[in-house]
Design brief:
83% helix, mainly alpha, 4 helices
C-alpha cells in the first residue's frame, strides 16, 4: 500500500473490481452528471428544429381533429334542430285547420243562438255563453297562427332564409 492510500485509510483490498478506490467512482458519477447537464442544452440545431417542428405538427393535427369533432357536433345539432322545427311547423299547420274549423262552428253556433233568442226560444245567458265560446275559439285560432309563425320563423332563421 502506498503512503497516500494509507493516509486516506484505504487498503488495496478496498478497491473494487475495476481497480479504483470507491471514492473515485463517486467523483466519476458526479462528473458524468455535470457533463450531462452542461451538454443538455447544447443539442444539434437540426435536432432542436426537428423536435420543434414535430411538436408544432402534432399540435396542428390535434387542433384539426378537434375542429372536425366540433364540426360534427354542430352538424348533428343543426340536423336535430331542423327536424324539431320542421315537426313543430307541421303540427302547428295541421292544428290551424282544426282551430279554424272550431272558430267557424262557434261563429255559426252564436248566429243560431241569437236567432233562437230573437224567436224567444233561448235565454240571454245562452247568447252570452255562445259569445264566450266564440271568443275562446278565436283566441285559440290566433294562438295556433302564432305558433305556426314562430315555428316557420325558426325554420327560416335556421336555414338562412329570413
Amino acid at each position: 500500500m502506498s503512503q497516500a492510500e494509507a493516509s486516506r485509510g484505504y487498503s488495496r483490498d478496498e478497491r473494487d473490481a475495476s481497480g479504483f478506490h470507491p471514492i473515485l467512482h463517486i467523483f466519476q458519477r458526479a462528473q458524468l452528471s455535470v457533463d450531462a447537464l452542461s451538454h443538455e442544452g447544447e443539442q444539434n440545431p437540426a435536432e432542436q428544429s426537428c423536435g420543434y417542428t414535430s411538436s408544432k405538427v402534432k399540435q396542428a393535427q390535434l387542433r384539426r381533429q378537434q375542429a372536425q369533432i366540433d364540426l360534427s357536433v354542430t352538424q348533428k345539432t343543426l340536423a336535430g334542430n331542423l327536424a324539431a322545427y320542421y315537426a313543430e311547423a307541421q303540427v302547428a299547420q295541421n292544428q290551424i285547420a282544426s282551430l279554424r274549423s272550431s272558430a267557424d262552428l262557434a261563429q255559426e253556433s252564436l248566429r243560431l243562438t241569437v236567432l233562437r233568442y230573437q224567436a224567444g226560444e233561448a235565454t240571454a245567458l245562452e247568447v252570452v255563453d255562445a259569445q264566450n265560446t266564440l271568443n275562446l275559439a278565436r283566441n285559440a285560432y290566433e294562438d295556433g297562427l302564432l305558433r305556426f309563425r314562430v315555428a316557420l320563423g325558426n325554420l327560416q332563421t335556421l336555414t338562412g332564409r329570413l
